[in-house]
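SAMPLE LOG
Freezer: B-3
Tube label: C17
Construct: single chain, 328 aa
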Amino acid sequence: MMVKRSISILYMAAMLWCSNAVGQQVPQFTQYRFTGMVYNPAYCGSKDGINIEGAFRAQWLGIEERPITQALGVHVPMPLIRSGAGVSITNDMLGLERKTSVYVNYAYIQPVGREATLSAGIQAGVIQKGWRGDRFISPSGNYEQGSINHNDNLIPVGSEASAAVDLNLGVQYHKRNMWLGASVLHLLQPSNTFTWADNRVEVINKRHFLISGLYDFELNRIFTLSPSLLLKTDLVKYQLDAGAMIIYDRLIMAGVSIRGYEATSFDAIAISAGVNLGNKWLVSYAYDAGISQLRNFNSGSHELVIHYRIANFVSVKQGKTIYNPRFM
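STRUCTURE (predicted):
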């Protein structure tokens, strides 16, 4: 199809005709309040029990080779040493590129007075990137009867892969109904290097800075208003997500959010709804309606988050255990 061919050509132009390719490299989740392991290592171990947290996002439906993101995290508190530990995996499929990140997570949780905690976390792991050279399409290529001949040495014929060591750092402050967080992703700016034929391409995982915040306003004994924000930047480009949720009796939640901060950066408006089942399961869904120029070429984005908690295993602190699905 012409759309697929255009995407492939533009993708190769961006990735191969530059010696250093740098792009938006932080996974996108509208429900960032439920994907703390993706954005801040200090989130690890902040909830009671063994926590298994998954997320799936299909972006820009209707566009071929659209971005698809999956994330899975498992973490547990270790109160005897004021710590949390876990593992996390993120898989991004961006066009004909696949990026898989695997980390081990550790956070130290320090009480601050009677009602607050300050956490510092670290993630260490590996980023693997791969390209499907056999799926690229060159204007001068020959692809008859299943053969692959790009007639262009700049385009790999087969699959190419590269791995790089990565390090992320974060801090989180929590007091009563307030959560504040800051993190640095790709601290050392690791690079994935690809070589084939006479070509060498270096893809830099650029350092990103994130700031997050959330506050629960208890309107009455049943309803809570919970505004939140997430700012991501590489100090060249900025992306802001801001929204609010209404939570009913800690069981049912619904919200709205927007991505962007001024006329040229507005990307999407999203609605979400979720339910907390039996203090063990959290299921939440979000739909993004595009408001950028891409809105004419796609039917929106879908996102699903599922959490499962094995309770009464370990507790963050003594006393009554209260399940809190938020992060920051």
